[in-house]
Design a protein that fits this description.
The protein is α/β, with parallel strands linked by helices. It contains 13 helices and 15 strands. It starts with a helix and ends in an 18-residue tail after the last helix.
Length: about 350
């Protein structure tokens, strides 16, 4: 008995400490992230590299759908990321498009961060801003890397002009992009005019045009941003893309498979993008293979893939949970270092195994 009690296995056990639990409000998240767009783009790029190197766990997202509310959904994105971030967690994000008619945002989200040593959650934070920021940073990174062989576009078009479009414009502007022309199209004329007003207030020197239809927008743009809530493809004419634009297909389900099959396709993660009825998934089902996928953004950053300039380039990011964790942990660390964390004392009712 004595020998067993002093065995190497027992001696190797080290005491663990449960971290304090903090709640981080949206105002604090915005305070940390505002004006740090360049740092967030760099963080997202590094996270893509860590993920591509295999130091992450990013299982498929889980979609909670409702028979009585078919347009609505809530998605769970569990993930774990190593590297310097070194955290586990999950994002719980809802999309209720009918909210817009009531004057409230379509999406809402929370992010839970878990301690890797104990598994205990140590933060719950408002995450719609984190989600929008990591999405916009991903788009800005893709726009940069995918235009390096063809020159930066001077004409940009936004197809769908909600929160994500606004954040993408903010991140492009903050990472030294400038445009001569900015096109706007949305099924809601009121939203299109509202976005035009936002652009003019942002101080842009570009000429801003609200287009009557999608064809005119696409044909007149060298960089096209799709940020809609479309659940199935609605753009199918390949001739609209004959000028070989760079397309940030952020909303994933706008383009018919024929357009992807006629383009260079860069994804953020192949397995994740080729599911859940995305345009890339439909293209795979149509042709029965994945040969139309040229690689990932990490492949481009590592020099493994060099997109050509003789066809459209389409970037389709599924939106990886590891990105939310990286940005969320950045926010947490900044608040912790400045002493601004709002810790909930006694959040865990019992921290002794035997009471």
């Amino acid at each position: 008995m004595t020998e067993f009690a002093t065995s190497p296995v027992a001696a190797a056990v080290e005491p663990k400490t449960v971290p304090p639990f903090a709640v981080i409000a949206g105002a604090q998240v915005q305070q940390v992230l505002q004006g740090r767009e360049k740092q967030i783009v760099e963080l997202v790029e590094q996270t893509y590299r860590v993920h591509a190197a295999g130091d992450s766990v990013n299982p498929p997202s889980y979609f909670l759908r409702f028979p009585d509310r078919p347009t609505s959904r809530i998605i769970a994105l569990p993930a774990s990321i190593g590297g310097q971030v070194d955290v586990d967690g999950i994002k719980w994000v809802s999309s209720f498009p009918d909210n817009v008619a009531s004057g409230i945002p379509r999406a809402s989200a929370v992010l839970i961060l878990n301690d890797r040593a104990t598994g205990y959650p140590f933060a719950c934070m408002e995450s719609s801003i984190i989600s929008a920021s990591r999405t916009a940073a991903s788009a800005a990174a893709a726009a940069d890397w995918l235009s390096r062989g063809r020159g930066r576009p001077r004409r940009i078009g936004f197809f769908g002009v909600g929160l994500i479009a606004r954040y993408i414009h903010t991140f492009l502007n903050a990472t030294d992009w400038s445009f001569d022309e900015i096109g706007v199209f949305d099924l809601s004329g009121e939203s299109a005019e509202g976005f035009k007003g936002y652009l003019e207030r942002s101080g842009t020197r570009a000429r801003v045009t609200v287009h009557d239809g999608p064809e005119q927008l696409i044909r007149s743009s060298d960089l096209v941003v799709f940020a809609t809530v479309a659940s199935r493809p609605h753009v199918s004419d390949t001739t609209w893309f004959a000028h070989n634009p760079l397309v940030l297909h952020v909303s994933l389900r706008d383009l018919a498979p024929e357009i992807l099959l006629a383009s260079t396709n860069i994804l953020d993660d192949v397995d994740h993008c080729l599911k859940a009825g995305t345009s890339a998934h439909l293209a795979e089902q149509m042709v029965g293979h994945r040969d139309f996928v040229d690689g990932t953004l990490a492949d481009v950053m590592e020099g493994k893939v060099s997109p050509s300039d003789d066809r459209p380039i389409v970037f389709s990011p599924f939106g990886l949970g590891v990105l939310d964790l990286a940005v969320g942990k950045y926010v947490y660390d900044e608040l912790a270092s400045s002493g601004q964390l709002r810790v909930v004392e006694d959040f865990f009712s019992e921290l002794r195994r035997y009471g």
